[in-house]
């Protein structure tokens, strides 16, 4: 069968007909990531049966592409020997991640059967706190002594290549494994044969401490277009690398977390789990914020109730309250989103608060003038049939509504910019200033600005 035919196979149909020959061809002739896509939704028993037709190396690579929950369901069915084979062939970082998720009774049974180097590697990689560079790095990297020649280095890399995730970068370390520099495979190939690595290595290294945040590591890889980022400990010894594919996973995870926090959704903020999460789970993640903000929103009702007499006298103002809420929420959310994103990318810090506020004042004024003009035109063109007190002219009402709406837009823009900066100033995640929370705050302040501005201009 051709590669295209293998990729379009119906695995469930092959299982139902017991066609193991085609299953074996599929597992041998198809990319592991494509195999994972085909089998990820199968029951665990069928998934195990399919993977038995693959080599141990392919089986481990397919396993690493499965969702963590699918991995755990599959692991529950594996025998001790199958688990040992899986742990032996998994990349070090994936092996450590799986180890952390397994119950103690499973790990206690597996660990003694692994080679000592693998046991020590698991213990070291699982010792780092979640969210740090150490928690996402791999120990599967190529290091090279500085005294080898270019010709010797090629032979050396050829020897260790089968056991390394990437050899395009080789990291130069001394006897204490302190990072001295790096060389690329291109550097070694193009260098004169007898030139030493210490003479051709790059010493201007971009690295990261093992305890720094994983998002910072991913951003460095993105900023400097790196294939891998070396990770060092306090003594500047090389302990691992973070590869570009792991950096993409980190950025995806962080963006998912920021997006869900921005919309006031609690939970673990994992990517790709919408369909795997039950309706009850989604309810738990959303309900606390929604209920809390609903209670806080009662303040808006009290404000409207307090100005009930004003609305009875000027009913036309009630017609513009939806526009007030929409424009305030929209402009505030825009401002907050831009500031939160700038903070996340380290484009600004809380120390830039004055510059940010000054910029947002300018933006808010421009938006306020635009929306005030729209509201003024709306009143003058379509407000003639509204009931207003005889002692007031329609243009006075139009000016009051336009001014109140303009002030509300400026206020909402400033609140949207200031709240994330204040939260960041106290070393908290600015994404917790979620759009629903911001909208509620802007609604309350907007109503106060709306009614008091109108009363001041109309001298009520």
Automatic annotation (TrEMBL):
Pfam family, one: MgtE
Organism: Alkalispirochaeta americana
Name this protein carries in UniProt: Magnesium transporter MgtE
Keyword set includes rRNA processing: no
Family membership noted in the UniProt record: Belongs to the SLC41A transporter family.
Record field: transmembrane: 286-304, 361-381, 393-419, 431-452
Any Gene Ontology CC annotation: plasma membrane
Function: Acts as a magnesium transporter.
Keyword tags: CBS domain, Cell membrane, Magnesium, Membrane, Metal-binding, Transmembrane, Transmembrane helix, Transport
Secreted recorded as keyword: no
Membrane topology: Multi-pass membrane protein
